[in-house]
Amino acid sequence: MEIEIISFGKIAEFMANQRLTVDGIKTTAQLKDFLEQEFPPLAGIKYKLALNKTIIQETVELKSGDTVAIMPPFSGG
Amino acid sequence: MASERYHRQLILKGFGEEAQLKLASAKVLVIGVGGLGCPALQYLAAAGIGHLGLVDDDTVALSNLHRQVLYTTTDIGKLKVEVAAERLVEMNPEIEIITYPTYIQRNNILNLIQDYHIVLDGTDNFETRYIINDACALLNIPLVFAAVDGYEGQLAIFNIKDDNGICTNYRDLFPIPPKKGEIPNCAENGVLGVLPGIIGSLAAAEVIKLITEIGKPLINRLLHYNILTLQQYELNMSSGSDYTLPHTVADFLKMEDNNSCEIDSYLEIDATQLKQIQQKPSTLIIDVREEFEVPLLNPDLYKKIPMSKLDEFLAQEVTAYHVIFICQHGIRSITAAENFHKKYGTSKKVYSLKGGIAKWRNHLTI
């Protein structure tokens, strides 16, 4: 399965936008676990996932070709 | 109303006298008169928002001027709200401007915002942003949220129902405030001056659209903007369920804002405590600023290990028992202290100098 990853802010510093080929990952929760293992700094940051440009509030199923955006909070002014 | 002043927007299709009258009777509170607040206020005042409130307890500093465009070099040291109000009145003497040289806290915000129709959040820290969010949600006041980080910005509108009856707030995005040091601020991470200029101007445009009911305001959508690529990315929002907002004023006032780390991982200390710990045997003070950062401190007393080399340092064994991390503003030092604690656990005492060298430079040895 192929997932497009788009990252922002501090997260983009260690996880560039990329197409990931992942096998055995069926849900956003599994994707989170996978990304936090591949990119350990992610586990130390609060972030929100958006699936195909919609923020998700609970675990949802993924399908090939989905785009997952990973957004950290910004506080600066 | 001097219609000549507003002529160019009065003749706009879909705007006209009616929209201008709505602006004239609107009350908008801008919290944070900095990089975002300055450009937002310029356009809100110029457009003829009838009543503008300005909240900020800070004074103008030299390092503000590259992005806080209402201020000049001769304003350094003056209260931002007073200088800003002076400039805005010169720009448009027909509107009312009220200044609040106050730091927003849970116990003063409800009184401040209750008479306003819209709040614009242009502050610079998470603690204040969560207080503003919770207060606006409690009183059901529309909130225009604007924030920047490095070369990127975020914009959203909260507390307004969309066509489906959905109403969101910041906690639907990020239910729990980040810990100190988890996300950098402008003082630590830097910001290109024009970025808050753009995001602040967009925030002002959203305020004007909400008041005049033109266009499609950013309700329940989060706009992300990247100034390096000029790309915008828009996310649709929905209500989350993993948080609870206070339903009464009493509950609101009781909420905890202290989001600093658990005390057993590291301690935040001031310069006096630093001096006391310094006297103890087996103490090591580590300056995690990069090589180019000033003021330079005595390298015999403050071991220089820049954040960029912290991992190498953590790979070695440290013999000292008390380990104090310092940096420019006390934020990177928290990250360093956390990482250090992860390796050594409770076998060592770890500290971070709160406020950093910028705050305590007269207490440190050059």
Please give a structural write-up.
Chain B: It is an enzyme of class 2 (transferase). Chain B: One of its GO terms (molecular function) is molybdopterin-synthase adenylyltransferase activity. Chain B: This is Molybdopterin-synthase adenylyltransferase. Chain B: It catalyses: [molybdopterin-synthase sulfur-carrier protein]-C-terminal Gly-Gly + ATP + H(+) = [molybdopterin-synthase sulfur-carrier protein]-C-terminal Gly-Gly-AMP + diphosphate. Chain B: Belongs to the HesA/MoeB/ThiF family. The complex is a heterodimer of chains A (77) and B (366). Chain A is of the alpha+beta class and 77 residues long. In chain A, 19% of the residues lie in helices and 27% in strands. Chain A is globular, with a radius of gyration of 12 Å. With 366 residues, chain B is α/β, with parallel strands linked by helices. Chain B folds into 2 domains: 7-254, Rossmann fold (3-Layer(aba) Sandwich); 267-363, Oxidized Rhodanese, domain 1 (3-Layer(aba) Sandwich). Chain B is built from 13 helices and 13 strands. Chain B has helices at 7-10, 16-25, 37-47, 80-91, 106-113, 126-139, 186-189, 194-212, 249-254, 271-279, 310-315, 332-344, 356-360, and strands spanning 27-31, 51-55, 96-100, 118-121, 143-149, 152-158, 221-226, 231-236, 267-269, 283-287, 303-304, 322-326, 349-353. An 8-stranded mixed β-sheet of chain B has the order 3-2-1-4-5-6-7-8, with helices on both faces. Chain B has a 5-stranded parallel β-sheet with strand order 9-13-12-10-11, with helices on both faces. In chain B, helix 3 packs parallel to helix 4, helix 3 (37-47) packs parallel to helix 8 (194-212) and helix 5 (106-113) crosses helix 6. The longest helix of chain B is centred in the middle third of the chain and has 19 residues, at 194-212. The relative contact order of chain B is 0.11. The chains are: A alpha+beta (77), B alpha/beta (366). Chain A binds chain B through residues 6, 8-10, 44-46, 48, 50, 53-55, 57-58, 69, 71-77, and chain B through 32, 34-37, 122-126, 129, 146-150, 152-154, 172-174, 176, 178, 182-186, 189, 191, 196, 222, 224, 226, 233-242.
